[in-house]
Amino acid sequence: MIKAFLKNLITPLKPLYKGNSKAVRIINDVLSWCIVAFLxxxxxxxxxxxxxxxxxxxxxxxxxxxSAVIFDLVLLYIIWALVLLIVKKGFYSxxxxxxxxxxxxxxxxxxxxxxxxxxxxxxxxxxTGNVGELLNFITVPYPIIFIALIGFGLLLSLPLLFSDAxxxxxxxxxxxxxxxxxxxxxISVSTPQRAQKLLNRNSLRLEDMxxxxxxYKANGFIGAFSINVLSANIEEPENYSxxxxxxxxxxxxxTAGTNEKTPDIILVLSESFWDPALLCGTKYYDVSTGNEVxxxxxxxxxxxxxxxxFGKFYTTGFGxxxxxxxxxxxTGLTTDYLPAGSVPFQYINEDMPSYISALCDMGYETMALxxxxxxxYCRKDAYPHIGIDTLIFEDEFHALEDDGIIDIKVRGNQxxxxxxxxxxxxxxxxxxxxxxFIFGISMENHQPxxxxxxxxxxxxxxxxxxxxxxxxxxxxxxxxxxxxxxLAELCDYIDKRGKDTVxxxxxxxxxxxxxxxxxxxxxxxxxxxxxxxYKKIYSxxxxxxxxxxxxxxxxxxxxxxxEIASYxxxxxxxxxxxxxxxxxxNFLRDYYDLLPNYNIRLHMDISDDAKVFAEYHKIFxxxxxxxxxxxxx
Length: 633
Known about the structure:
Alkaline Phosphatase, subunit A, alpha/beta, 2 domains, two-stranded antiparallel ribbon
């Protein structure tokens, strides 16, 4: 259909070309073959300029990373050859080629501008079906120069329309040749050793995928993306074996619980829940009264209550990627060494132990509740494998409304936190005689924040913010106020319950506030980008609240000062409630003693003893999600 449209569009132009002199046609043919020869070079410059967004950075990359540039160009020429062989005609081939690289470089730019993270192969594989939903989150401006670069690249294909620039072979020769090229390329990287050898020749390394920020800065978009493609499978740790796994895990044993109670447990991942007061020099004023506002006033009041446990939750996400800290909280595993940008749940295709399955073994009914589509992040398929019995997504919310049980309210283009709490408490009260675990993920305060609310409830003031950034922060804080109010409502509900109930509430990651860490850098909250700055960027508030005395544990204690990594949060709650602990949980508790808040995004210097635990955490995670599952023996 597209081909027919283009044919109808351009066919009237051909007589104009045929009417030209022979010399003009010869010049066009020469120009066309020059375009065929040099188009990959233009595509390279276009793609990497959009990626680096700076002529100086691009030139530094070309001058200082010659081997990587050569690798990129060879790869682009191979792709160009394949497109020509498959499509045949130079004009259509050029359109497809330029449009494809223009599109992925654009997505990479927009994703980085909004989240501080780059485009990964897994984004394409996992989120293609959600493109319509994802487009709703894009609000950052797109530079005109990028549009011009892509537009010029598309215009370069026009001379090819009026020439014989094409592969002069029949399809039954072109297709086998293209298949042969693809097979040879696959063979050249078919093993990690071959991939590593190829990359090393060009000053690239598979290990670069461990820290994606430096990967994309040092290797450019094409090189970094290629490294991620070649490391798409989870790399087996160098010393992974049954003996290695046994040597560590056999130091621990399962421990019986001494609990006398099995209270209802509510675990709430509050979307982008964070303290905006940490933006230095920033104040917030109520639109209607003009009075200064504390965005987390209810959170702070609840933290002052006797027995409340609160502090910093260390996450592996920023601006997005909710699924990574979510996966860690539920399973106790780490995403530090999974392919960056991948969806951890994509690797879960059979039952595996988790904190939730441990609750199932204790007789708990388990449920996940999220007022959004079930297709995101493979949740619908993976949740049952980690012990979640009942799944409640957006469709079920609407069914509750149809039955007159809840009244769905929309705030910021999403189902509101108020509605989320209404549904959560409804399911808690149903069959109240049974012990329940409910994992809830809110959605209201999801990005984008520009123009999120018709009327933000606060005004943001910071002398370093422009009007656009101030408006973005004001919209975000409006959502925080709603989340803070929902937290207060939930705690009041718990206080009035006649059944013992524990609430664990945490934010999954900081929000995207402007491009390239805009509000954080403009306010002076971060700037040195040392470990302390990374701790600020990768920590959110959490609390543990209950309507009965849960005392103190080794990991979590009443009052402030608590710091805990995502993978140990539920472990700490198990300890507070005196629940049984597996050998793996006890391993994590010793890990906590050395490093209570560790993940690789914090760029921390750690002791040799701590490195041993970090390495075994990597090995155990690999064993569960991609290895032989020696831990289950």
